[in-house]
Amino acid sequence: PPGDAAIEEHENHGSPDPxxxxxxxxxxxxxxxxxxxxxxxxxxxxxxxxxxxVGNTATADDIHLLxxxxxxxxxxxxxxxxxxxxxxxxxxxxxxxxxxxxxGSQR
Length: 107
Fold this sequence. Notes:
7 helices
């Protein structure tokens, strides 16, 4: 069954790392999630969910990854990247968020 690969992956490697998903190409992400239901197989939804997961557990080490998504051309991913940056609550994140929000309002 298609779920066997997922069970084996989880047993051998633990839970998937959402940060890793955000660094993958679309084709790598499709391969990694081939056993998941993804609406229309649009990887933007997997990335959005990964951004939420990272935002909920973010550390200062995630700032570059989140900033890259906060300026993503896909508005869904940019909005979730900005949200995730806000969750950091560290001084260096605030000016990045403010700058990205100003750029977004000029679109």
